[in-house]
Amino acid sequence: MDTPTAVATLLLGMVFGLVAGIAFAIARRAWTDYGKAKAALPGMRKTAWLLTRVATTRIGIVVLVCVAAVAYAAVDGQR
Asked: Mind listing the pLDDT tens digit for each residue in 57-75?
């Protein structure tokens, strides 16, 4: 183990192992986060559709009130 080639090979292997370990840890964490996001997606999708429905209903009510006001103004002007 006194030869420079053995020491260089050992150091190179340690550096490669460290880099590979870090990359594996990052990939594992990303896969876990992906799984959590995928599991939460149906709930978020349901909430998004609920909020869209509420917003559409409110916009529809405002449009109906505006149409009624315009119709009332048009009829009131003819009397």
From this structure: 999 999 999 999 999 888 8
